[in-house]
Amino acid sequence: MAEREAKVGRVISELGLPVPAVRDVIETAGRYGIVFERAGNGRTMLQEFGSNPWRLNSLMRVFAELHLEMHRHS
Question: For residue 52, what are the β-bridge partners?
Fold first, then answer.
């Protein structure tokens, strides 16, 4: 499943969408994970929401717009 998800991530990145690039798929203690590049030096949406919960609507709008852009490609 991790390999498949990594492949999807690579395709999305190749489309030029603003997503972190897939760096590697790793296995640790029998569990697999994907290593992504760090996307900027700022805070994550989760961190921003945790300290500024009144921004939920604007943050979710950005999140939804990113996903809609992804789904505009086949």
Answer: none
